[in-house]
Every structure is written in structure tokens, then in C-alpha cells.
Amino acid sequence: MNRRRVPVLACSVVGAAVVALDGTVLTVAQPALQRDLHADVGQVQWTSTGYLVAVASLLVFAGRLGDRYGHLRVFAVGALGFAAASVGIALAPGIGAVIALRVLQGVCGALLQPATLGMLRTAFPPDRLATPIAVRTAVIGLAAAAGPLVGGALVSAYGWRSVFLLSVPPTLAIGLLALTTRESRSRETRVPEGTAPGRTDPPPRTDPGLSALDPLGALLLVMTLGLLVHGLVEAARPGGAWTGAVACGGAVVAGVVLARHERRAARPLLPPELLRSGPVVAGIAVLLAASAALFGSLFVATYFLQDVQRLDPLACALRFLPLALLMVLGAPFCPPLQRRFGPRRTATAGAALLALGVLLFSRLDTTAGALPVGVCSALLGAGFVTLMVTATSVVVHRAPEAHAGVAGELQQTAMNVGPALGVATATLLLTLVPDGGFVPARGVALPALAAIAALALPAALALPGGARRGTRPEPAPPRPGREPCVRS
Cα(117)–Cα(94) distance, rounded to whole angstroms? Predict the structure, then answer.
């Protein structure tokens, strides 16, 4: 491997792993954080959803920033900001400061995530991208799976603040490494049409300026998601029904304005050609429903195991070990299944497993032991990893070639929006049944999340049905003013 590519690969892999670890390591720390800072469930919920909404709203915009100003530069800003925000959270005096700093951490996480792929695309030639992407994917899986175990051990030994200090050394190191690494593009670049053979000069930019980044579209997306989650949270508070309804109404208005703006923008944040692709829309819907059901269920289950069954954070994390193992070990089996049975049948089976796991979780009572919890966790892990791998493959590879990068960012956006909505919905339903909400068999949160998981079934049925067709890219639309070329 070229020596210049080693630091790029290191930054990409470590950066993606830190974000994946941070997304799961906090799960088992939330009850301890709530007790220490004397917060309510809604406030604790915002420590997760504030981060997720910030990441989800800015991912596509951050990808545009990396394309324009350099992925390494954007990555360095995100990594150093992430480290600084993590230190601030570990020293925060109250829940308000934690929420604000988590939102800032989400902004920095949005700068990190697209850049981890963008750096690989610019540093490695297309025929050598498979290996670095495979390494990155494997490390993400291991980090996400290890998150609850690492978080449980740290919280049990040192308290919830240690969870946030965990990410400081690696993000600080890779941020400084990115600052000292010169960004270079691979020599094996695609030659644009009309370019003389032998030349690899990039095509000239035709739309320089901030308008090409569509900052107004990014702002409207932030407002839509933020108001929606805020409305769900406010509706759960005593006397907050009116405020919640107003916030949800504001989210609808912001969404309508966003849709009108995107139709009129010269360079929309969400390209209409991408949103007109049926497989891409179906894949995003699958990821939204699946991630909402999974993370909402984990939010409820964590409180059940720690506050009702009185397990410590490490023992709680061990109950989720089957979920982590099946996500790591099951991922390599998903592409062969997809090639043999097609994306539709593979995703349908995964949606059925996920919905069954949440439904069985909803029947547990206070006497539930490690075996039934482990079985439910295994079903959740098997179903979610099947859906995630299959739907991601469809979204990325069935998108028009000209928008493949944005499709990948939309996939990451869905994987952050879903958990935010799932946790917010769980919080609302837990508050509506304060006496029995944390006991699955007496609450309404997990049955509702099982219904959300079931929504992945019709979306999965809309995926491509033929075997070996899920990874075939759609042809790029012809350019305006040019006749399509027919090869003889």
C-alpha cells in the first residue's frame, strides 16, 4: 500500500469506529446519568436524540463541504471538535450542559462520518477500494457491538462520565494526523467525456460558491427533524400536549417548505432523481423503521433491566451480548443470502425476525431471566443486521451513478433519524404509563415499537425481487441537451 494512503486509511477507520462506538456505548450509561444529574426521562432522552438529530440533519451538507473544501480538512475539524465536546460533557455540571454539548458533538460527528468514506474515495483508485471499505465496515461492526459491553464496564467501575472520555484520545490523535496529512487524489481517476486521452484533470466547477452547498436546505432539514422530535418529547410532559402539538405542526410546515425549496433549488440538498428511485426510497424506509424499532426497544429494555430488575450496567450489557454477536457474525452471511434469494425476500425475512424480537420483548415481566432476554436480543440482532446490510446495498448500488455519494449519505441519515424518532416515541409512551411503563408486559411502548418494526415489511416488499439484482446500479440519466449515445 502507498505510504500516503496509510494515514488516510487510519483516519477513516478510527473515525468511523469512534462514531459507531459513541452511538452504542451511551446506551447502558443513561440510567446512571439520570440519577447523578437528577434528570427526568425526557431530558435523558435528549442526550441521545439531540446528538442523532444534529448528525442526521447535517450529514448530506457535510458531505458537500468535504467535496468542496477537502475531506481531510473537514475531517480534522470534526475530529478535534468531537474530542473537545467529549471533554466538556465529562465535566458538565448539569443535564442542560450535557444536552447542549451532545448537540455540538453531533455537529462534529456529521463532519466526521461522510469524510471517512470521502477520504477513501479520493485516496484509493476504484479497483482498490474494496479492501479499505471492507476493513472500515468490519471495524464499525466490532465497535458498535463492543459499545454496550465497554460502556457497562466503564460505568460500573468509574461512572457515566468515563464513557465520554473514552473517545477523546483516538479523536484527538486522528484529528492531528489529518491536519498533518496532505490530501491527494488517486491517479486512476475517471476521464471526463471530451477530455483528451491521457489527461486526468478534474472537470471545472460550474457552480462555485456557498449556494452550491444548499445551506437553506440543510437549515430547513434541521428545523423539520428538531421540531418533530421536540414535539414528541413535549407531548410526554405533564401539560405539554399543546406545546407538543405546536412543535409537530411546525415540523410539518418546515417539511413542506423544505420540499418546495428542494424542487426549486439549482443544486438541491436531496437530488430529485434520487428520490424518484423506487428501490432507494424503499431501502431508506426499511432503515428508518428498523433503526427506530431497535433503538427504541433498547432504550426501554435498558431501563427495565437496570431500574426494575436492578442489574448493574455490565450485567445489563451482557444480556444484550447475543444481539452484538449476531450483528458481527451475521453480516458476512447477508450478501450471499441476497444473491441467492434477492433483496426482497432477504429483507422480508429480516423484518419478520426484528418484529418478532420486539414483540417477544414486549411480553416479558419482572421475573424474566437471562435466557428469554437473550433470545429476544438474538432475534433483534439477526433481524436488524439482515435489514441493514440488504437495504444499504440497495440504496447505494441502485441509486443513479451520478448521485451514489449522496445516496450513501442518505443511508447514514436514515440510520440516525430512525433511532431519534424511536427513542422519542418510546419516551412519550413510557410517560403515558408511568406506573408500568418500564415493565414490558404492562407497558405500551414495546408493542408500539413492534408495530413500527412491522412497517419494515411493506417497505421490504417494495425492494427489487430478483436474485443478484440488488446491487446493480441504475443508469445515470442523460444530460440535458445531449442525445443518448448508442454503442454499436
Answer: 35
CA distance linking residue 132 with residue 17, whole number of Å: 14
Dihedral, CA of residue 153, residue 154, residue 155 and residue 159, to nearest 10: 150
411-427: burial string, b at 16+ Cβ within 10 Å, e else: bbbbbbbbbbbbbbbbb
Nearest residue to 307 (alpha-carbon basis) of 438, 111, 187, 218: 438
Q: Are 406 and 21 in contact (CB under 8 A)?
A: no
Residue-wise pLDDT for 169-198, tens only, equals 999 998 898 888 776 554 444 444 334 444
The amino acid at residue 146 is A
End-to-end Cα, the chain, rounded Å: 39
Cell 465536546 belongs to 85
- Grid coordinates representing 180 are 498533518
Model pTM above 0.85: no
Angstrom distance (rounded) from CA 16 to CA 120: 12
* Tally of CB atoms within 10 A around 272: 11
What is the C-alpha to C-alpha distance for residues 347 and 378, in angstroms, rounded to an integer? 17
pLDDT tens by residue, 362-420 = 888 888 888 999 999 999 989 998 898 888 878 877 766 566 566 767 777 788 788 87
| Distance in angstroms (rounded) separating the CA atoms of residues 112 and 71 | 9
Q: Can you tell me the distance from the alpha carbon of 396 to that of 403, in angstroms, rounded to the nearest whole number?
A: 9
Q: How far apart are CA 301 and CA 130, in angstroms?
A: 37
3-state SS track over the chain: CCCCHHHHHHHHHHHHHHHHHHHHHCHHHHHHHHHHHCCCHHHHHHHHHHHHHHHHHHHHHHHHHHHHHCHHHHHHHHHHHHHHHHHHHHCCCCHHHHHHHHHHHHHHHHHHHHHHHHHHHHHCCHHHCHHHHHHHHHHHHHHHHHHHHHHHHHHHHHCCHHHHHCCHHHHHHHHHHHHCCCCCCCCCCCCCCCCCCCCCCCCCCCCCCHHHHCHHHHHHHHHHHHHHHHHHHHHCCCCCHHHHHHHHHHHHHHHHHHHHHHHHCCCCCCCHHHHCCHHHHHHHHHHHHHHHHHHHHHHHHHHHHHHHCCCCHHHHHHHCHHHHHHHHHHHHHHHHHHHHHHHHHHHHHHHHHHHHHHHHHCCCCCCCCHHHHHHHHHHHHHHHHHHHHHHHHHHHHCCEHHHHHHHHHHHHHHHHHHHHHHHHHHHHHHHHCCCCCCCHHHCCHHHHHHHHHHCHHHHHHCCCCCCCCCCCCECCCCCCCCCCCCCC
The whole-angstrom separation of Cα 180 and Cα 200 is 26
